Amino acid sequence: MSDPFFQPPSGTDLPRYAGVPSFMRLPYLPADHPRRADVDIGIFGLPWDGATSNRPGARHGPRALRDASTMIRERNRATAQEPFKTARIADLGDVAMSPVDQDEALGNAQSFVAGMLAQNIRPFMVGGDHLCTLTVLRALRAARGAPFGLVLLDSHTDLYPPYFGGRTLTHGNPFRQAIEEGCLDPTRCVMAGMRGTSYNTADFDYGIERGVRIMPIEECMDLGWTKVMQIAREVVGTGPTYVSFDIDFIDPAYAPGTGTPEVGGPTSFEAIKCVRALRRLDIIGADLVEVSPPFDNGGITAWLGASVMFELLCAMQP
């Protein structure tokens, strides 16, 4: 599987601060590149936060994550994996998403992912706010013809009904909308890490009624993260599963650069352990969303996000 073309340059050959940044220094392959059809996993950015309900800034996440991810090396010391050797991974660029027209923005993103899937490229989306995930789920549903499972690591369920009188989708709605549209099988959806204040119980009520396994932070902390992820694996089983990681899953002491932080979450190491526990699931796509550089301190959130991305890439492989 190892292909020299898809190997990032080593920091021992070219300093990691040098060159044009791409995700993890991988080759950048625009739509017309002759090697694009060879890609196994395509990383792409959705630089859009038009569905943010309070503090914007996640539109700048993909750029910050590209820069931070140049620090990533080739080998996962803990798992002994070398993901750039066992899969052909590339940076497929960013989707042009209108900052003022939600329908156009989401439509462009969904079309982009549909093109990837037509080339048998597994999508790895970097947001952007969490509504960006809905575009990937829609494209996967259209391509596969059947709903699939979900592992969500987040401090929010994102199962609320649309805001502002039921007219507007926001980053608080993507998974409710995905269930309603038949993208997700709710009985194979697990959500872990939920915490913080809430408007009401509409999100939990909806999820529980439809069979979603919701694990609030209190349950997670009582059980321990190893047991939490064991339950997650049991819920999604061996079927096709999408993994979505909101950076606000992690306690803001470690990841302050996000629009809706919630105190009392896992440490950075606990979060990485959760991702490693996903290995050997049938992961059909993944994302890392809601990194908001304007609220970051010294780039620590972007660096943590890039590290989680690397772990997700490892989890997507044997």
Please give the structural blueprint.
Elements: E1 41-46, H1 61-69, H2 83-86, E2 89-94, H3 102-118, E3 122-127, H4 132-144, E4 148-153, H5 163-166, H6 174-180, E5 184-194, H7 202-210, E6 213-216, H8 217-223, H9 225-236, E7 240-246, H10 268-276, E8 282-289, H11 300-315
Parallel strand pairs: 1-2, 1-3, 3-8, 4-5, 4-7, 5-6, 7-8
Helix pairs in contact: 1-11, 3-4, 4-6, 10-11
Mind explaining what this structure looks like?
This protein is an alpha/beta fold and 318 residues long. It has one domain (4-315): Ureohydrolase domain (Arginase, Chain A, 3-Layer(aba) Sandwich), CATH 3.40.800. The chain has helices at 61-69, 83-86, 102-118, 132-144, 163-166, 174-180, 202-210, 217-223, 225-236, 268-276, 300-315; strands at 41-46, 89-94, 122-127, 148-153, 184-194, 213-216, 240-246, 282-289. The chain starts with 40 loop residues before the first strand and ends with a helix.
